Amino acid sequence: MTATTGLRWLVVPRAGMPEPSRDLVGGKAWSLWRMRSLGLRVPPAFVVTTEACAAYFAGDGLPDGLADELTTGIRLLERELGRTFGGGERPLLVSVRSGAAVSMPGMMDTILDLGCNDTVEAALAAETGDPAFAAEVHRRFTGFYGRLVLGCTEELEDLPDTGAVRAAIADDIGEPVPVDPWEQLHAAVAAVFRSSRSRRAVAYRKHYGIPEDLGTAVTVQAMVFGNLDDDSGTGVLFTRSPVDGAREPYGEYLPRGQGEDVVSGRVTPKPLAYLAERWPRVHAELLAAAECLDREGRDAQDIEFTVQNGELFLLQARPAKRTARAAVRIAVELVDEGVLEPEEAVRRVTAEQVRTLLRPEIAPGAAETAEAVARGVGASPGVATGVVVDTPEAAQANPGCVLVRKSTSPDDVHGMIAAAAVVTEQGGATSHAAVVSRALDTPCVVGCGAGTVDALVGRTVTVDATCGVVYAGELPTQAVDESEDEDLRRLTQWAQRATTLTASTTAAGAVFDADSVAAGDVPEIPSGTKTVCGAVFCTPEGVRAALDAGVEEIVTPHRLPVLLAAIAQQRSVS
Questions:
Q1: pLDDT tens across 134-193, in order?
Q2: Nearest CA-CA partner of 104 in 180, 33, 156, 27
Q3: How do residues 268-283 score in pLDDT, each as one tens digit?
Q4: Quick one: CA torsion of 380, 381, 382, 383, rounded to 10 degrees?
Q5: Side-chain half-sphere exposure of 378, counting CA atoms within 13 A
Q6: How far is CA 95 from its chain centroid?
Q7: Could you tell me the domains of the chain?
Q8: Neighbouring-strand partners of residue 95
Q9: How many whole angstroms separate alpha carbon 57 and alpha carbon 181?
Q10: Do the beta carbons of residue 440 and residue 416 sit within 8 Å?
């Protein structure tokens, strides 16, 4: 994408254009350019840049000239599709989607079906011959707008029609959803900008060390409708398993659904095999596109797609959030495939991910006599024990608890960060709870069924998210031996070659033992020390202090996390 002549705040697609700046257009719009450049089918779009977002906050409103440029962008979509925004026989509806330069899945807002009103609903009904579909589009849009733009706090998803949604919004905030589609668009862009500073977005950036001033771009994209008919649907595909890294497609498909239905976890989608059975041609096209994106991206990809009346459209592709186990497996496999060199593979895995992978697991035989109090889908593996709470606020107040929810949303992220494990009643392996838990490397079991929250709240449980089972009480665990894992063993060999620091499990000579002289803070290392040991030197701060002091060897029970921390530290100062 490149800026059209005379536009300051927008970037629009052009054939053969150079790669856009991710910092300017955000990751979502960059992925649209990437897919379009590869010849993949993508609904047309234009982008409001991160510079416009910065100007919005600097001036407390949409910057001068943006409203006119939004009109220009919409006219471009109208001409490309032969549709009309706000009316006409072939109405144009758009999605207004956030997109930061650094991927933050689910942390900011997206408004779908924008441009709908009574007139557009009637035109959509006439075009499709399906008044029920048109009414559902209008109801959904009204709910999106009321919740995300106007700030309605009422539950709107299960209300039967647009009139009921309008009434609930009016009762809650006393403000109607505007009829004018241009007013809708301007307010929606501003709302997406504001969502970049929401509590959930701030908590996510803080947890991952993402700069606070990145803001977000806004992608305005022509709608495609997965809820149009029986030949339509929506889904998410991972080119490699985000759970264990297996080199096979992993994902779900929801017939007659929109992307929000899958992410929200309110509905449990079907496996991709359903799409293969129902539409083998579409399934084959999807897998071919996935293989292309995996190969071109040199990494596992998370792909959002919609099928409209039997035609596949790709909406987004980005590097997949993954568990620690998947990160290790994918890095090693990409070396075996000749995609990465070992030196790059070790940079794809963090010390914290390996520490997570080495967390204890349920001791052999312990689960055989334990009471299983819930079962679901293991969406992010691992084992954790804690007291069950049922709100994100309670989780934040009780770190290390188990957060159990009907389903999770971006508003739950601060609690998910604090929790030792997450369990949900609803949703599948690509729901919000699953995706965010994998990013956090928090054990997560989804789809445990109605009544799980009430049955578990207040109890101490052990969550085995590897097997998808929740047990009553605290089960015994045992440590994991990294030397018995072939992927970890190979990464350790590559990591040792990539740093001057040696990590050993035993010491041959004199050792400065930090555990015998200090606890907590990194102690002062005596001049000339070559070998150190102690738990503090297994932390990033301890590794940094050892390197700064000229230490050549760290003695540690787990070598790989220390080596990866040393590589990261040496890269940061090079």
A1: 999 999 999 999 999 999 988 888 899 999 999 999 999 999 999 999 999 999 999 999
A2: 27
A3: 899 999 999 999 999 9
A4: 90
A5: 18
A6: 19
A7: 1-223 (3.30.1490.20), 224-322 (3.30.470.20), 361-478 (3.50.30.10), 483-573 (no CATH)
A8: 221
A9: 24
A10: yes
